[in-house]
Amino acid sequence: MTNRRSATHTPVMLPEVLKALDVQPGGRYIDCTLGGGGHAAAILEHSSPGGQLLGIEADPSALEVAKERLQYFKASTLLVNDNFTNLQTICIKYDFFPVHGILLDLGLSSMQLSEQGRGFSFQYDAPLDMRVNPAQKQDAAGIVNTYPEAKLAEILKTYGEEPFSARIARSIVNARPLTTTLQLAGLIEKTVGRRGKIHPATRTFQALRIAVNHELENLESALRQAVDMLGYQGKLVVISYHSLEDRIVKQFIQKEARGCICPPSAPVCTCDHEPRLRILNKKVITPSEMELRENPRSRSAKLRTTERIAMRNDTYTIPENESFFDSDVSRGWRRPVLLQKIKMVFLTAS
Ligand SMILES: C[S@@+](CC[C@H](N)C(=O)[O-])C[C@H]1O[C@@H](n2cnc3c(N)ncnc32)[C@H](O)[C@@H]1O
User: Is 83 in the pocket of ligand 1 (CB under 6 A)?
Assistant: First the structure.
């Protein structure tokens, strides 16, 4: 059995992340995907003295690893076992907004991938689990063994971009119940054969993992909330690892960076949409040759970075010569707007 702690996670594009977040002493940052705490430790080092970090992690055992790693920075960190889809609620609960930067380093850590028993990889035989948070009810076995064939095929096609989705879904349904990773991987190999270097089960495993953990819906929701938590010129930095994630990030950023979003055929603008973000890297940032050599797991990483800009109704002032790092300015920034929003939620609910 592989011990979770025998595998460590090397933070991806670390210098690029620190630069993109523009980490500065006294800054407040949120790491929405704490993992092993590698990025978090570097953010805390570079924001010292006075820096603060809110770390969010859905996997309780990953959080324990991060806690150990960040022990030295205990006084400046707040580590929460939660899903980043609750970002705004967490920030409000702990009074941790607005912030200077937010990081989302998506996917799974090397620790999770190499841990037997979690079912993320078909390199080890394990129950079909794939839950990032083991407290969640739905696991991969539930999907594989109970979903109708058409729905299963749809998941494989949409989340795995699997060209043989229908064929694989059919053979899964015929072979039920399937209980382990090797059973499923073997069945897929038998169904579609093996060509090239990539194992034919790779896409199906990606699709199931995305479906089990609602990865794409969570990402969309977290991005929307993140913009509200950023202070003026606060940075939103996202590292994605596959094209579905990157497409969501790219489209979100492009929309938030645009003014009018009316269809081109509209004679006049009726959307009243205002840009909230400024794109800082027009070209996506990828790992250096050296990083690719040293950490092959970084090969699919894509980093996008943006900055919060001012909107018409933002209720803040930045007096001349005063920076967001002056705490009075940063703490009060945009709070009235956010409180208004919360009030609206309460009114709708009652
Ligand atoms: C690639 S790892 C992050 C590694 C981290 N940056 C480091 O340097 O150690 C992604 C982490 O995000 C966590 N995660 C994935 N989805 C999440 C979600 N919706 N909410 C909170 N954490 C999530 C995973 O459990 C995993 O530990």
Answer: yes
